[in-house]
Design goal:
InterPro entries: ABC_BtuC-like, ABC_transptr_permease_BtuC. It is found in: Cell membrane. The complex is composed of two ATP-binding proteins (BtuD), two transmembrane proteins (BtuC) and a solute-binding protein (BtuF). By secondary structure, this protein is mainly alpha-helical. The protein has a single domain, classed as ABC transporter involved in vitamin B12 uptake, BtuC, CATH 1.10.3470. Helices cover about 80% and strands about 0% of the residues. Helix 3 crosses helix 13 and helix 4 packs across helix 5. The chain is globular and about 65 Å long. It starts with a helix and ends in a 7-residue tail after the last helix.
Length: about 375
């Protein structure tokens, strides 16, 4: 009798362990499928950007086929094998392709920085310009346009001033927050105050500006990718190579900070240090983008929300998805603005809002019962 009880008990234990292993295996498989879907979506976004980028180069007053575009690209590196005519080569290489590259890089950077700021500030309305970076850059342009004063003279007068004042504005807010405690509320309030201050100073310069100076400030404030050229590519690429990996390394920390600063601290994460580190890197990246493209404010606000609706809230996948969606929206808006009412070119900053807001509202209404924040 005792032997039968032992055998039955052993059978129950083996059955329990077997069912437990099966449950663990099912959970592991579900998680792998969950991650696989995210990777497929991100890969699809990347492939769509590559496809649309190659297609958009062919659109314009001068008709250029896809085959001619690839010949022009390869002729730069293999001139003996690929021969191209002068005008299409100049248009594609010096006008259209730099705009596409600038749109991809600027949209990607603004999307990532918007995702970072919404996470560290715990505010769904945060964007790369919450800290007054846009208003600081605009004030730098106003100073250069009206007074002709800048850290760099010549053709880079506006660019140098925009970058300098954008970074000074960010560093001032970060320093103020570090003295009073780098909480999300302190950063937001300081950013709003600085934003209003520099906006008022910019309006004051516009009031005293001549027609030519006013036109320059207004056109820069609308955002435009035409100022980007291949001479700026290496600088922007270096900033991306430094800031993007360092921000991505903080993805797990940001996931933990969602549960609150005190809970994150109990798990060994200093939320204030992470917040300051991420804000400093994001400010550097945004200032570099803004000084070459002007004010394009919509991408950093909405791209992270679009990504959150599609990919979820895990920052390991939310970061690249936000950047890719930002790049996708920006290049689509730019090519539409260039070709909608030829020969007039609508500024990129205007088109991003005109195209992005309806699509964003469609996503909200379509999935209104699900919370994403």
């Amino acid at each position: 009798m005792s032997n039968l009880l032992k055998q039955k008990s052993k059978h129950n234990v083996d059955h329990f362990e077997g069912s437990g292993n099966e449950q663990q295996s099912d959970i592991r498989n579900d998680y792998q499928r969950y991650v696989g879907r995210k990777i497929i979506l991100i890969t699809g976004m990347f492939a769509l950007i590559v496809f649309l980028g190659a297609f958009f180069v062919t659109i314009g007053p001068l008709e250029v086929s896809v085959i001619e575009v690839y010949k022009i690209l390869f002729s730069r590196y293999f001139p003996d094998l690929f021969v191209t005519s002068g005008l299409p080569s100049q248009v594609v290489w010096n006008i259209r392709l730099p705009r596409i590259v600038a749109g991809i890089m600027a949209g990607f950077g603004l999307g990532i920085c918007g995702c970072v700021m919404q996470s560290v500030l715990k505010n769904p309305l945060a964007s790369p310009f919450t800290l007054g970076i846009s208003s600081g850059a605009s004030f730098g342009v106003a100073v250069a346009a009206v007074l002709g004063v800048g850290v760099i003279s010549g053709p880079y007068l506006l660019v140098g001033n925009a970058f300098l004042f954008a970074m000074l504005c960010s560093l001032f807010i970060i320093a103020l927050a570090s003295l009073k405690g780098a909480t999300s509320e302190t950063l937001i309030l300081a950013g709003i105050a600085i934003n209003y201050l520099f906006s008022s100073l910019t309006d004051l310069f516009q009031y005293f500006a001549t027609d030519e100076q006013l036109r320059l400030m207004v056109s820069w404030g609308m955002g435009d990718l035409s100022a980007f050229s291949w001479s700026n590519f290496l600088l922007l690429l270096c900033v991306f190579a430094i800031c993007t990996p360092l921000l991505y390394m903080k993805a797990n920390d940001l996931n933990i900070m969602v549960i609150g600063d005190e809970n994150a601290k109990s798990l060994g994460i200093d939320a204030n240090k992470v917040r300051m580190f991420c804000m400093l890197l994001a400010s550097l990246l945004i200032a570099t983008i803004v000084c070459f493209t002007g004010t394009i404010a919509f991408i950093g606000l909405v791209a992270p929300h679009m990504a959150r609706m599609v990919i979820g809230s895990d920052h390991k996948y939310l970061f690249p998805a936000s950047g890719l969606l930002g790049a996708l929206v920006l290049i689509c808006a730019d090519v539409t603005g260039m070709n909608l009412i030829r020969p007039t070119i609508i500024p990129t900053g205007i088109m991003t809002s005109l195209l992005g807001v309806p699509f964003f509202m469609y996503l909200i209404l379509k999935r209104k019962r699900k919370e994403f924040w």
